[in-house]
Amino acid sequence: MTGLNKSDHPVKWIHISKLSVVWVKAQRPFSEVRAKKIAQEFDPDAFGVLTVTLPNGIGVYHIIDGQHRKSALAEWGGENQQAPCEVLPIDDPARAAEIWKKRNENRRPSTTVENFLLAVTAGYDNETKIHQLLTEMNYIVSSFPANGHIKAVAACKSIYQKHGIEVLRDALIVCEACWGRSNHSVSAFNINGIGEFLGRHRGYVEMDRLIKPLRAFGETRFWGETKTYKEVRKIATLTEATVGFLLDQYNHRNKKPLAVR
Fold it and tell me: Where are the domains of the chain?
């Protein structure tokens, strides 16, 4: 084990042809999907520094941390690239594996809410527009369970991307009209199901006719009835089951029933 100083942790620019996972069992398996995603979204300022060992007898440095970034760099800029590397004075696989384990097992993945708010701060278009809508409707994006809080931002983004901001707005209005402003009323289940139903039948749905039976069910019973509907009819996803269940409820005793879409 070294000290925390410049001499023990030098940063060196190394040609990527000299960087490889020499000891496969001292690293996690390579994921081509992950590497391609990094390459597609490649940002040199976000690349960071790879962590490597001392070179072996043929001059190749084992990558302790950063194999996917190294692959993404090659795909993004070609094979004639150099990468900034923190070179640790290590020459055995056991110590390399130990460092990888310590660095990665203590990293807490960012939550969906954290990623969403960071995207808003960074000015991402979809997240910014969704956040503006939620703010207008007096919702706070938060994982903390409280009235007026919403954490189902992935569901919001899914409905927005499929059907637009107005459908998302209407889905949130229905949730609030039926079950109030608790964080449970604007759950991912409710937003996905109601948003998808409204998106498919946009322009044909009378909101009061939709809201009345849902309000009578209550949020917990609505979830339970939809789950049963899914199992009985052997529907693949809960969202599809919700759309079907809502259609049945909406069309019950309705002289102008909606068609399946």
Answer: 11-105, 112-251
pLDDT tens, position by position, 224-246: 999 999 999 999 999 999 999 99
The 3-class SS string of 38-74 reads HHHCCCHHHCCCEEEEEECCCCCEEEEECHHHHHHHH
pLDDT digit string, tens, across residues 108-154: 888 999 999 999 999 999 999 999 999 999 999 999 999 999 999 99
11-105 architecture in CATH?
A: Alpha-Beta Complex (3.90)
CB 142 within 8 A of CB 152: no
